[in-house]
């Protein structure tokens, strides 16, 4: 079986000078675990890699446990395969917002939220933002930018489904890197 391309999205590292993880060390960490074609993107913890065996769930458990052992703290890690990323990009419900990467974000969610959870979140969406959930991805269009969005800060508490957000520039960069790492899975 040939190696498949995966993306690992870390949450809670290198935020506000806390839980510092150098990307060179993170690349070495993935290589030490036996993964190939390892590449990172920006400091928030985005890794593209190839794995010879295992699915996203098994790889998540393996990487989270090894990460905590090495760095001494837990980081929630979302591991997804390249087809998930391709689908995320192609199903973007806000193509008009994609030109400005600060105004379009995708949240990788730990699981698909229930209709009730999405409805509860929709009640909180009273500003200029719009959001849509497709499977385990939440798309957020924030016309004033994420930094100024009150709603964006409410998402984790209101939705109650753990996730990690990436701006559209990061999403597209990861898609390009995954293509360079090995093309389609």
**E-strand count:** 8
End-to-end distance: 11 Å
Principal-axis shape: globular
Q: Helical element count? A: 6
N-to-C order of helices and strands: EHEEHEHEHEEHEH
Give start-end ranges of low-pLDDT stretches. none
Q: Mean pLDDT, as a whole number?
A: 91
Main pleated-sheet profile: 4 strands, antiparallel
What's the CATH C level of the largest domain?
A: Alpha Beta
CATH architecture of the largest domain: 2-Layer Sandwich
Q: C-alpha Rg, in Å?
A: 16 Å
* Largest sheet strand order: 2-3-1-4
**Per DSSP, what share of the residues sits in E-state strands of 2 or more residues?**
15-25%
Structural class given helices, strands, pairing? alpha+beta
Pfam families: DUF1697
Protein name: DUF1697 domain-containing protein
What report would you give on this structure?
This protein has helices at 23-32, 56-71, 82-90, 115-124, 150-159, 168-182; strands at 4-10, 36-40, 46-51, 77-81, 104-109, 130-134, 137-141, 163-167. It is an alpha+beta fold. It folds into two domains: 4-83, SP0830-like domains (Alpha-Beta Plaits), CATH 3.30.70; 87-170, Alpha-Beta Plaits. α4 runs antiparallel to α5.
């Amino acid at each position: 079986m040939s190696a498949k391309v995966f993306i690992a999205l870390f949450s809670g590292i290198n935020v506000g000078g806390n839980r510092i993880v150098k990307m060179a060390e993170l690349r070495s960490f993935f290589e030490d675990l036996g993964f190939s074609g390892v590449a990172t993107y920006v400091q928030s913890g985005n890794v593209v890699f190839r794995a010879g065996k295992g699915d996203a769930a098994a790889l998540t458990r393996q990487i989270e446990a090894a990460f905590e052992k090495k760095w001494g703290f837990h980081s929630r890690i979302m591991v997804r395969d390249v087809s998930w990323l391709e689908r995320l990009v192609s199903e973007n419900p806000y193509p008009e917002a994609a030109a400005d990467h600060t105004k379009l974000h995708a949240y990788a969610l730990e699981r698909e939220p229930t209709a009730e959870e999405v409805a509860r979140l929709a009640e909180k969406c009273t500003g200029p933002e719009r959001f849509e959930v497709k499977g385990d991805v939440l798309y957020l269009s924030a016309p004033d930018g994420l930094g100024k969005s009150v709603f964006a800060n409410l998402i984790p508490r209101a939705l109650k489904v753990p996730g990690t957000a990436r701006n559209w520039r990061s999403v597209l960069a990861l898609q390009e890197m995954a293509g360079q790492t090995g093309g389609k899975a």
